[in-house]
Specification:
Helix content: 25-40%
Strand content: 15-25%
Bound molecules: S-adenosylmethionine, iron/sulfur cluster
Order of helices and strands: EHEHEHEHHEHEHHEEEEEEHHH
Number of helices: 11
Largest sheet: 12 strands, mixed
Structural class: alpha/beta
Number of domains: 1
Shape: globular
CATH class: Alpha Beta
Radius of gyration: 19 Å
Distance between the termini: 28 Å
CATH superfamily: Aldolase class I
CATH architecture: Alpha-Beta Barrel
Length: 332
Amino acid sequence: MQPRLVDDFGRAITYLRVSVTDRCNLRCGYCMAGEVSFSPRRDVLTIEELEFLTSAFVACGIRKVRITGGEPLVRKGVLHLFQGLSRHLRSGELDELCVTTNGVLLSKYARDLADCGVRRVNVSLDSLDRDRFAEITSGGDLDAVLKGIDAAREAGLAVKLNAVAQKGYIEGDVLDLIQFAQERQLDVSFIETMPLGEVKTSCADRYLPLAELRQLIEGRWTLTDIDVTTGGPARYARIDETGGRIGFITALSDCFCENCNRLRLSATGALYTCLGHDDFTDLRAIIRREGGAVGLESAIRAAVAGKPRSHEFGTSPGREPALKRYMSALGG
Ligand code: SAM
Ligand code: SF4
């Protein structure tokens, strides 16, 4: 089938990430400041508005939707959104509906998510050491996340772990995380820390190029690059000894923008065509206008046409934050 949303650089846009809240039950140091001011409730889209807007993107040609946050599972009524969107899976208009979560509430939601047609869940997990996990997340309960991962697997969901590679932290955790993933046949991806927002743990202090992390991993396992994609930015390598996979998301050191297929919708209805730029299109204003959502499709298409060629984080994380917006506003 021909892609139906194509930007001015010829990239087919097939993937929408929808942030359903900017709130979260954790405070990871690289993502949020201690004192974040959240969007006023009147500005946040209702579940019905989120479903309406997401469905408009599906009608334009989006084939994959990821629900994210903040922490998506703290959003009241989030299951109604999954239930509503699952009709697009059944109709064949959508290939995939998935979710990125910190896993704290996953044991409560895993079964219902599976019932809504979710097949894959990304769980962010930076450490298997209780104290270090609590330090990174400002008090998070590792056991709740592990329980969530078990529940997701029992519900038949494919779980992928995502860990942010923070210098000074990840070196002590990387091998345990991979071992944990191998034992459960889970994929695991490592992400370079990006300079967004005035966060607690600055990117300049904590940036670690993934090539260095890979060297550490190769002290234990043999990695062979493989040509697979799961529709996101990770580049994968096979662990020869186990047959498992590791993803590397090299947002800074080896920018993957030329293959970018993504759009991002914030919980307040702002459409961002690039994580690394501040420009957005206010879709909330369009759908809350008297007389209905006239002009919505043309606004989406105009935004897509103007999608920037690349983020401008640069390869040196020294001048930061590159953007005032927090990662929690758009969900990665
Ligand atoms: N709360 C959910 C979670 O943690 O999975 C979803 C939202 S979170 C913003 C999405 C992803 O962004 C997580 O995997 C998180 O580790 C990652 N992230 C947050 N801040 C980041 C940063 N400064 N650089 C790179 N990745 C970041
Ligand atoms: Fe919350 Fe996810 Fe950001 Fe951590 S990375 S503070 S869990 S939104």
